[in-house]
């Protein structure tokens, strides 16, 4: 800023020099050309030696003056050159300085300037400009409700975190769904110097439910009106953002604009960039009253302390009641009411430069707001069409949005050096656990994975299911990665009940999955499938963590612990619900076994009955699962007995037993130390046995494993000797932990292992 001011002083001095020095010089010369009140010619042709006025003294004086004239002309030429350089460098220098110090663009609170469409965004003052202190906390408020809005918030937050250099405090006005999703997400994201507070949006409904609203945002689109009541009374200022916002700069630059507010200005807004409030979009179009083009409320700067003193709550309510008598409802939710208030009280608003809210609606005039990429600060997808909106620069904006949409959120876990952060118990515990590990241990990476916190986004797609009232409902639980997506439709066709899936994906893969699911009629017709994204981190597939995530987020009393490569028999869902009652699973510790089979054929005529399955077994079309590579895994099921069984029968636990079971939702979790391939299910079944679960085989249930390429983890297990050594070490440690936890009864696991 100091450089800008110095440049302007040089510019002014140069201008004055060019204007006044020649004038003074020529006045001096002109005056010197008179002698005795008569003009003296400086022309050599008129000043001949034989002239009586000609003397040696006057000749020297004239020569001296001519030299001085040439010097002045040369100085003027140099000054003009310097002046042109200052002019050409000035704007670029301004932009560079602006980005370094967060100096504020000039807006205006003048309603006349607004009506004239004036945005003085590139002017600046030579006085000291306010800046945001290095460790000053920036407060951001967002209203968020539902599954889709929760996804949008993540992209917005990513764009803010990417550019930010200050601590952030997000105030999220969320419904129960969004709170569950975002609380888990931020807890597992563990971004330093970021604080999250939630406010119950459902409790605020009564404050605005009396306002009829036609906007697609529904009742939640009105809740920005009550932020003065909702947010803490000691919070003085806040930036309010819509969920469909993308930042292209540091949010601290916007926070700095608060220092520009003067007088009674309490709202910072950008002019609306469409003709909506002019009322000329179609015949009989009748918008709410607004000042000129009105203002867009996708980005708002609120001076909360002053708004409270002005009795904002009473102000907007009275305005809304008056206008609703003739308008009947709002078309643009809170934006209509904000504009009606401003129409009556124009002194409240400070107009932000338009690049703080570049609006991409169908009728936008936003291209008048920017000349090149450096002018863009905030992009607002304020059309119901979102990324499909019509705009001549939409490809550029879409690519900017997709950059953050698919950006690896783990890379945003950056420390803000020099800024003290609040103590995070989870982070401190994690660091303590990791510090206790020996980095020279050859199995260090395996042990470390047990403590890795994976960013988790619950209910990535819309989920809606009420469990059956008879308390017999069963949820199918499974986990998968990107290479198993093709199994989803088939499983949904075989299992009509609720499903809980944990997907291990990168940020980019999560978006590929979203597009895949949205393009599938089968998946989109099912609202009882919960998709929980666990984001990739580390070198191992955290199979048991994924299972635990899927198990934890079921709403039914029972769950069927399956794998994504298996197709359950048609009608298994209803059969299991009947078995739950028949075997009194609610009051007994039972694990109901669903016998597992496999086919080597990619195209299979799926058996519709047990009799048909037995026929295919005899023909060699089907086999008992893994009979040729891992017989011990399912041998205790006793397939020979199952062939003729008509009633459930009990089997005993044996070493390496890993059946697929139906259990109550309160069963123990899977042990996280087992990652990748090997012993992940075996350890869980062992713990069920240690807790005295009774294993009961269902006589008329079955599931079939479909063929697929070997996973990356099983390839590592087969090819890497150290992998196998570490797995053996972890298995021994697990058995020792079982002995310590369950005492004498757990000794059989060590004995069985030694005999196997």
From TrEMBL:
<keyword id="KW-0328">Glycosyltransferase</keyword>
<dbReference type="GO" id="GO:0015020">
    <property type="term" value="F:glucuronosyltransferase activity"/>
</dbReference>
<keyword id="KW-0808">Transferase</keyword>
<dbReference type="GO" id="GO:0000139">
    <property type="term" value="C:Golgi membrane"/>
</dbReference>
<comment type="similarity">
    <text>In the C-terminal section; belongs to the glycosyltransferase 49 family.</text>
</comment>
<dbReference type="InterPro" id="IPR051292">
    <property type="entry name" value="Xyl/GlcA_transferase"/>
</dbReference>
<feature type="region of interest" description="Disordered">
    <location>
        <begin position="42"/>
        <end position="62"/>
    </location>
</feature>
<keyword id="KW-0812">Transmembrane</keyword>
<protein>
    <submittedName>
        <fullName>LARGE xylosyl- and glucuronyltransferase 1</fullName>
    </submittedName>
</protein>
<keyword id="KW-1133">Transmembrane helix</keyword>
<keyword id="KW-0333">Golgi apparatus</keyword>
<dbReference type="Pfam" id="PF01501">
    <property type="entry name" value="Glyco_transf_8"/>
</dbReference>
<comment type="pathway">
    <text>Protein modification; protein glycosylation.</text>
</comment>
<keyword id="KW-0325">Glycoprotein</keyword>
<keyword id="KW-0472">Membrane</keyword>
<feature type="compositionally biased region" description="Polar residues">
    <location>
        <begin position="44"/>
        <end position="58"/>
    </location>
</feature>
<dbReference type="Pfam" id="PF13896">
    <property type="entry name" value="Glyco_transf_49"/>
</dbReference>
<dbReference type="GO" id="GO:0042285">
    <property type="term" value="F:xylosyltransferase activity"/>
</dbReference>
<dbReference type="InterPro" id="IPR029044">
    <property type="entry name" value="Nucleotide-diphossugar_trans"/>
</dbReference>
<keyword id="KW-0735">Signal-anchor</keyword>
<dbReference type="InterPro" id="IPR002495">
    <property type="entry name" value="Glyco_trans_8"/>
</dbReference>
<comment type="similarity">
    <text>In the N-terminal section; belongs to the glycosyltransferase 8 family.</text>
</comment>
<keyword id="KW-0511">Multifunctional enzyme</keyword>
<feature type="region of interest" description="Disordered">
    <location>
        <begin position="85"/>
        <end position="109"/>
    </location>
</feature>
<dbReference type="GO" id="GO:0035269">
    <property type="term" value="P:protein O-linked glycosylation via mannose"/>
</dbReference>
<feature type="transmembrane region" description="Helical">
    <location>
        <begin position="12"/>
        <end position="31"/>
    </location>
</feature>
């Amino acid at each position: 800023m100091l450089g800008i001011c110095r440049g302007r002083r040089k510019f002014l001095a140069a201008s004055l020099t060019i204007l006044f020095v020649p004038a003074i010089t020529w006045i001096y010369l002109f005056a010197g050309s008179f002698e005795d009140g008569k003009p003296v010619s400086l022309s050599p042709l008129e000043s001949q030696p034989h002239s009586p006025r000609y003397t040696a003294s006057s000749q020297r004086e004239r020569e001296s003056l001519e030299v001085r004239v040439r010097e002045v002309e040369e100085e003027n030429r140099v000054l003009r050159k310097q002046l042109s350089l200052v002019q050409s460098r000035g704007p670029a220098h301004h932009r560079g300085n602006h980005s370094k110090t967060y100096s504020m663009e000039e807006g205006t609170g003048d309603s006349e300037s607004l009506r004239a469409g004036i945005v003085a965004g590139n002017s600046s003052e030579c006085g000291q400009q306010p800046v945001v202190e290095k460790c000053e906390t920036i407060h951001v408020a967002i209203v968020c409700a539902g599954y889709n809005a929760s996804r949008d918030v993540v992209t917005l937050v990513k764009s803010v975190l990417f550019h930010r250099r200050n601590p952030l405090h997000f105030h999220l006005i969320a419904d129960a769904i969004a709170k569950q999703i975002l609380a888990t997400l931020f807890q597992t994201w563990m971004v330093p110097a970021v604080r999250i507070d939630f406010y119950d949006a459902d409790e605020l409904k009564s404050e605005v439910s009396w306002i009829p609203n036609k906007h697609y945002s529904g009742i939640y689109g009105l809740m920005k009106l009550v932020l003065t009541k909702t947010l803490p009374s000691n919070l003085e200022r806040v930036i309010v953002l819509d969920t469909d916002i993308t930042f292209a700069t540091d949010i601290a630059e916007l926070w700095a604009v608060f220092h520009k507010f003067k007088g009674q200005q309490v709202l910072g807004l950008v002019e609306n960039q469409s003709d909506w409030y002019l009322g000329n979009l179609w015949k009989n179009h009748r918008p709410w009253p607004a000042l000129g083009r009105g203002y867009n409320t996708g980005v708002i700067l609120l001076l909360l302390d002053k708004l409270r003193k002005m009795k904002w709550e009473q102000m907007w309510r009275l305005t809304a009641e008056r206008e609703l008598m003739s308008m009947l409802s709002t078309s643009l939710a809170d934006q209509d009411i904000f504009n009606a208030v401003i129409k009556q009280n124009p002194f409240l608003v400070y107009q932000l430069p338009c690049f703080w809210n570049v609006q991409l609606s169908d009728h936008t005039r936003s291209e008048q707001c920017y000349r090149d990429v450096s002018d863009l600060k905030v992009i607002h997808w304020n059309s119901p069409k979102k990324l499909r909106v019509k705009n001549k620069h939409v490809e550029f904006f879409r690519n900017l949005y997709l950059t953050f949409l698919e950006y690896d959120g783990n890379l945003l876990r950056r420390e803000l050096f020099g800024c003290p952060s609040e103590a995070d118990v989870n982070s401190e515990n994690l660091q303590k656990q990791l510090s206790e590990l020996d980095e020279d241990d050859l199995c260090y990476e395996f042990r470390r994975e047990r403590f890795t916190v994976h960013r988790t986004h619950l209910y990535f797609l819309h989920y809606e299911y009420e469990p059956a009232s008879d308390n017999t409902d069963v949820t199918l639980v499974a986990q998968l990665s990107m290479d198993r997506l093709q199994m989803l439709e088939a499983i949904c066709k075989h299992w009509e009940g609720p499903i809980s899936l944990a997907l291990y994906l990168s940020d980019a893969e999560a978006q590929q999955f979203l597009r895949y699911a949205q393009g599938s009629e089968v998946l989109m017709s099912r609202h009882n499938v919960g998709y929980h994204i666990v984001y990739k981190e580390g070198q191992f597939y955290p199979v048991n963590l994924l299972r635990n995530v899927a198990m934890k987020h079921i709403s039914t009393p029972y769950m069927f612990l399956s794998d994504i490569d298996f197709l359950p028999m048609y009608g298994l869902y209803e059969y299991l619900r009947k078995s739950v009652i028949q075997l009194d699973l609610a009051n007994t510790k039972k694990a109901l076994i669903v016998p597992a089979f496999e086919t080597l054929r990619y195209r299979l005529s799926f058996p519709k009955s047990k009799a048909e399955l037995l026929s295919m077994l005899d023909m060699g079309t089907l086999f008992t699962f893994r009979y040729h590579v891992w017989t011990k895994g399912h041998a205790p099921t006793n397939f020979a007995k199952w062939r003729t069984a008509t009633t459930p029968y009990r089997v005993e636990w044996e070493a390496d037993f890993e059946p697929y079971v139906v259990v109550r939702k309160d069963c123990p979790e899977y042990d996280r130390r087992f990652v990748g391939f090997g012993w992940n299910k075996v350890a869980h079944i062992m713990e069920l046995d240690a807790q005295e679960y009774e294993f009961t085989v269902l006589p008329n249930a079955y599931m079939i494993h479909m063929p697929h390429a070997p996973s990356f983890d099983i390839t590592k297990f087969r090819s890497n000797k150290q992998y196998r050594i570490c797995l053996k070490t972890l298995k021994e440690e697990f058995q020792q932990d079982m002995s310590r936890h369950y005492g004498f009864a757990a000794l059989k696991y060590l004995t069985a292992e030694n005999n196997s």
